[in-house]
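User: My instructor asked us to take a sequence, write out its structure as tokens, and then describe one feature of it. I'm not sure where to start. Here is the sequence I was given:
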Amino acid sequence: MDIIDSVALKKAKGGGVSTTEIGALAAGLACATGVALFLHRTVIVIWLVLRGERTQGRCVKRELIRSVSAGSSTRAEFTFSFRTPEGETVEFKDRPGAFGYEEGTPVRICYDPALPRKRATIAGPDTWGRSTRGFCSIFLWGS
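Assistant: Let's start with the prediction itself. The structure tokens for your sequence are:
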């Protein structure tokens, strides 16, 4: 019997819902939301890599962000820039994964021409590791 059926059964018998059950439901909802957001981002990145326009851009900013809540850890945040065929300069933040970039480093960018400010990435075969490239070449590109 899953947790939702258990809660319904307790209510039917006149019992209340415990704090533990409410906490478990809230944690499950938070996890499901996180997974949904991750999958949404993954689908957009894969679409951009497979169907988006490609252009050359540059890393224009590299910042070190210190997180106090995570035990004073530091992570790098990267801003990239490119020009659309219409001459518009677009800047966006992206997560380059295991690879870091210095300011001025040229990068390949995939973007959605309909929404270049909202949908752009540096993800692709140039930034993925060997195992990811192999997976994508076999399952996504069929080669």
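For the description part of your assignment, you could build on this observation: The chain has a mean pLDDT of 78. Try explaining in your own words what that tells you about the chain.
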